[in-house]
Fold this sequence. Notes:
The chain is mainly α and about 200 residues long. Helix content is about 75%, strand content about 0%.
Amino acid sequence: MTTSLTNDLLNQLQGQPLADIGSQLGLSPSQTEGAVSAALPLLLGALGRNASQPQGAEALFGALQRDHSGLDIGSVLGSVLGGGGQGGSILGHVLGGRQQNAEQGLGAATGLGQSQAGSLLQMLAPLVMAYLAKRMFAGNGSGNALAASPQQLGDVLGMEHQAIAQQGGIGGGLMGAVLDRDGDGDTDFSDLIGLAGSILGGGRR
């Protein structure tokens, strides 16, 4: 993979999809892109962490084949914006007991606050699953599927998790704070709050 899954999905959401997400949440274009850029590594990192265990990889592989295979990201976004998409249920499976930490951390890092961050995660979760199913089973427009077995899926997502961690920045920092600690609910997100300025700066570069 020359492009990480996170960056590839973010590229696919550029333009109208990001505009629709921002409109739903009442965010400016720059706020929307910054928040989505922080949230995607968190979700894909969580999937990578879950898939690092054989049982987790098998469960995710089955869910992608059963519930998300063949779905178009645009149609899924339309469903999500209409109140569908089962984002809450997906987040429960992906984040488990870390869901509240994830919402708090994303809210702190982006300045959105926990409630709005939770809404964003619920919107993005079905999109991530539809994207993964397409990449894993149909390839990236080339017909070359990335994963023909749960083990291969775990390997691909494991590499993505490592790439996010090595890349650092707001996405890597948020993923580490939420996922790579003990998940006792007492995570300190103060280190992430300083990152919010660049996102909440509106159109400033």
